[in-house]
Amino acid sequence: MRMEQVRDNVFTVTATSQELAALVAGARMSLDVMRAAPDVPADAIELLERVLGDFDRARGRLSG
């Protein structure tokens, strides 16, 4: 995996399909845990939902 910072808060990540799959799977598991926990801020859950939704839409554009 390679990661470069393009500018503040903007990164370019180069990953294999296996690396990307592991990252996304970890994010999905984290979201499930966050939803089940009583003390997780709602904005943290919303942010992760948005990021995963953006990923799903981008993946759909690649295969569509």
How are the SSEs placed, and which strands pair?
Layout: E1 2-7, E2 10-14, H1 17-36, H2 42-63
Antiparallel strand pairs: 1-2
Helix pairs in contact: 1-2
Provide an overview of this structure:
The structure is a single chain. With 64 residues, the protein is of the alpha+beta class. The chain has one domain (2-63). Helices cover 66% and strands 17% of the residues. The protein contains two helices and two strands; from the N terminus they run E-E-H-H. Strands 1-2 form a two-stranded antiparallel ribbon. Helix 1 (17-36) packs antiparallel against helix 2 (42-63). The longest helix has 22 residues, at 42-63. The chain is globular. The two termini are 26 Å apart. The mean pLDDT is 96.
In short:
The protein has two helices and two strands; from the N terminus they run ββαα. The protein is of the alpha+beta class. The protein has one domain.
